[in-house]
Every structure is written in C-alpha cells, then in structure tokens.
Amino acid sequence: MASKVYECISKIADIIIENKDFLTELDREIGDADHGINMARGYTEALGQLPQDESDIGAVLKKAGMVLLSKVGGASGPLYGTAYMKAAKAAAGKTELTVQDGKDILDAIIGGIKQRGKAERGEKTMLDAIIPGYEAYCAAADAGKDLAECLDAMCAAAAEGVEYTKTIIATKGRASYLGERSIGHQDPGATSSLLTMEAIRDWVRAL
Ligand SMILES: Nc1ncnc2c1ncn2[C@@H]1O[C@H](COP(=O)(O)OP(=O)(O)OP(=O)(O)O)[C@@H](O)[C@H]1O
Ligand SMILES: [Mg+2]
Fold first, then answer.
1. Which of 5, 42, 126, 159 lies 20 to 30 A from 68 at CA?
2. Which ligand 1 atom minimizes the distance to the CA of 176?
3. Mutate to test the pocket of ligand 1, among 68, 79, 127 (most ligand atoms within 8 A of CB)
4. Which atom of ligand 1 is closest in space to residue 193's alpha carbon?
5. What are the structural domains, with CATH classification, of the chain?
6. C-alpha–C-alpha distance, residues 203 and 6, integer Å
C-alpha cells in the first residue's frame, strides 16, 4: 500500500503536471518558457523513483529532493530540490506531522531557498508566495488553529503573494533582464509554489 507521504507528493505532481502549460506560458512572458516543462519533468521522474511504501516522511522527501536536484535544470530544479532536502531534514524519522512540524518545515524550506538562490522577499520569486504563506501559517498556529486551518491561512496569503508579484520588478533570474517590463506579470515560480501549497492543503483536507 502506498504511504501517505507518497500519496501527498503524487497529488502535488498531478496538479503541477495539469498546470504544465499554464506555468510555461507565465515563464514565456518574463523568462524562457520552460518552467512548466521543468517542473512536470521533475515530478514525473520523482514519481517513478519514490518509494511508495516508505512511511518515514523525511526519507521520501529526501528522495524527491535528490531527483529534482539531479534531473531538473535551470533555477527551479536546484531551488525546489533544496526545498525538499531541507524539508526532509526537518521531517526526518517522522511518520505524522503536527502543526509545529509544519512551521519547522516551512522555516527550513525558506532558509534553503534564500541560501541557494541568494534571494530575499520582494524580488519576484517563489519566496514571495512562500514567505507570506509561512507567516500566515504561523499566525494561525499561534492562534491555536488546527493543521488544515493553518494550511488554509497559508494558501490564502500565498495567493496574495502571487498577486503581489505582478506589481514588482524581478531582480533575480532571467526575468530580471526585463527590468520594469517584468511588472504586470505574475512570477511562474511563485505560482508553482502556490499550486504546491494548495495541493498539500487539499490533500490534508481530504484525509
Ligand atoms: N535566485 C532565485 N531565488 C529564488 N527563486 C528564483 C531565483 N531565480 C529564479 N527563481 C524562481 O525560479 C522561477 C523560474 O524557474 P524556471 O524553471 O523557469 O528556471 P529558469 O528558466 O532556469 O529560471 P531563471 O531563468 O529565472 O533563472 C522564477 O519564476 C522564480 O520564481
Ligand atoms: Mg524558465
């Protein structure tokens, strides 16, 4: 029987693969039209390689990170790969996740992406979805909300973050070559991060 963590990652993969053309079109506007292709390739490869019956959440996340790091080129492969590797470390040995674990995982992911991408919030990247998502998750957690409610808060804030990326100039990656012309376009990586967070939320809600 497939483990819960494999099922969750396969839901993320489904959503990313369904949105392959959408993500690629966003990247055509401000990048090189490969974001959806990169992400779909990475998840297709990961699904083929992930252990389906492993219940250690950290072990499965680590494998996913290794696949993304090794199989996906460009900026997003190493960045998402790093995110999964950092999440794996925070979830090592766990077979269930608490609200606090979610905080720790998001914190580790943000630290990893910042370090790997040398990026900060406000540069029109995936961090502009993930950091507000993390902050809203923490606020909900501190208010005593349950995991599904924290994930709802995270997704709502991340969606606002994606909208915000339309209003700012890209200063990282290929989109930065456009300067002011990047305004008006939503960031592809922020969008794939939002889709990932929504897939996790929907999966938890359906449990
Ligand atoms: N230094 C960075 N830090 C964080 N995120 C980044 C960085 N550079 C790019 N990104 C994210 O990666 C997304 C682009 O991913 P893609 O799969 O298209 O790789 P790419 O074409 O190599 O990227 P790029 O041309 O932007 O370097 C961007 O939309 C942005 O969210
Ligand atoms: Mg690209």
1. 159
2. 26
3. 79
4. 31
5. 4-205 (1.25.40.340)
6. 12
